[in-house]
Amino acid sequence: MAAIARSAPQDEISERIRQEREPANASAIVKLALLHAEAEETARLANLLGRSWYVAAALPVLAALMLDFAEPSLTRAIVWGAFVAAGSAAILRCYYRTIDQSFERVALRAFAKDLSPILLYAGFAWGAGAFLVLPAGTAMAAAILFVAAPAITIGALLRVREAAYLFLAPTTLLASFASVLMPFADGALAAGLILIASAAIAAAMVYSERSKDIRPAILTLP
Predict the structure, then answer these.
(1) Which side of the chain, N or C, has fewer Cβ within a 10 Å radius?
(2) Up-side HSE of residue 53: CA atoms within 13 Å toward CB?
(3) Helix, strand, coil fractions of the chain, as percent rounded to 5
(4) Residue 136 in contact with residue 190, Cβ under 8 Å?
């Protein structure tokens, strides 16, 4: 009985020490999780910044190829080229403004915020080419390629589906309208196929991003 009486206070002391240590350990774990999340966000935004330069360079190249294929009038080519070039110039301006700030998370967040409306504008600028560059009677395959080629390129370069959607949505909208209003060959069918192709591209981006998130967990299995 005396041994039991002596052990009881010791058990209470041990339990009290354990309870006092738990909040400190929990706080350290929370801080570690926050640091990990911040590092992950910084890396993701830094990658977006680095890849945006390639998008700015790719858009004029794709536009030049499209102009060579469609052979529009000089005035229409200059107008559409100016629209696309303005989008590329805006991306480059944000890129060079941010690249000198030592990858500070606040600056990277500001860049991502500024990039969103630029990509939306670039989508409308590219989609305007369906009216300005593509001639009436454009084949369905050419109309689909007009939308799919830049969308796939931007999605592959940025690897952020939300950013790619900002470009894809207005391009798809304007190209599908142009299919009916210009009209392109089999206008209504072309508009439908453009929508289907864009939906397939969007779904592929979602699948690619989900498989990228799942892959590390699979690799860690015994």
Answers:
(1) C
(2) 9
(3) 90, 0, 10
(4) no
As a whole number of angstroms, the distance between CA 9 and CA 202 comes to 65
Contact at 8 Å (CB) between 190 and 130?
no
The single residue listed with the structure tokens 């470009």 is 167
Single-letter residue type at 61: V
Helix (H) or strand (E) holding 212: helix 187-219
Residue-wise pLDDT tens digits, 29-47: 766 666 666 767 788 898 9
In the chain, the amino acid numbered 125 is: A
Q: CB–CB of 51/157 below 8 Å?
A: yes
Give the tokens for residue 214.
């799942």
Q: Please, what is the average pLDDT of the chain?
A: 84
The pair of structure tokens assigned to 72 is 């529009």
The three-point CA angle 112-123-134 to 5° equals 160
Give 108-120 pLDDT, tens digit per residue: 999 999 999 999 9
Task: Please give the structure tokens belonging to residue 27.
Answer: 């706080």
Amino acid of residue 12: E
- Please tell me the pTM assigned to this model: 0.79
